[in-house]
Specification:
This protein has one domain: 3-Layer(aba) Sandwich (Rossmann fold), CATH 3.40.50. Helices cover 52% and strands 14% of the residues. It contains 9 helices and 9 strands. Strands 3-2-1-4-5-6-8 form a 7-stranded parallel sheet, with helices on both faces.
Amino acid sequence: MTDEQGIAMKVYNGFSLALEILVLYIKMTLTWFHCLYQFFVPPEPKSVKGEIILITGAGHGMGRETALRFGKLGGIIVCVDINPTGNQETVDMITEQKGKAHRYECDVTDREAIAVLAENIRREVGEVTMLVNNAGIMPCKPLLQTSEKEIRTSFEVNIIAHLWLLQTFLPSMMERNHGHIVAMSSMAGVVGLRNLVPYCATKFAVRGLMEALHEELREDKTKDYSGIKFTVICPYIVDTGLCKNPKVKFPTLMKILTPQEASDQIVDAVRRNYNEITIPSSLYYINLICRVFPKQVPLYLKDFLDSGLEADP
């Protein structure tokens, strides 16, 4: 290659890089304005009529309330819980509202049991098109007082079960490029909280799992998976029975929500295809702003609010 050709190649490469950067800047700017527009003008809620919606932990709390709301909207609800009594109560409540619901008992930490569950659902109901990973447990005590069994069970229920369920139900969604994955994280998956060290670890993991899975499908060059949506839910304190000893300094600002209030926001977020929400929504923006500052600054705010969970009695 002559000197002239080398110079020309460098000029060409520089021009190409500058053009790529310009296109990137335009894309990022337009996307920013589009997101700003959607903040003030939210997208229209999508219909879930006819969707086969599997909800784990459907026998009580937010799982039950979310199932009831999706049932009212015309979804075909697959209620999965380890407690047959509570699970049947949820099914009865849905059918009393003229909805469609099916009951299955399953230990979601058991991979083989999930495989049997999936086969039964496919045969008796159809292919699951929406998966709501809601089941969870929350031992609340200092780390050094938490037993090995409590730690292992927390991880098995709160995060490993998500992986087994995804490996089981995601393939059919990928085949049709249609589906929605909903994962229950927590504000304890956004900020670390005392008395909840293993729980925080599992809920941080849920957010990482969902982000990584989204990228795995988005970056796949062999097929378009844009029809599969992902939503992560990060509630603050919800009165489901798990939070036995909450501590709230400013109840009007940091209100303890009922399962009904939380489920209203969950269903709305799913229908609008939001990627992640906190409940209440203000915490999402407070967290984003606080992350900009040095670590000690948001800690002052956290100490001022003085909210969280005391150890279980």
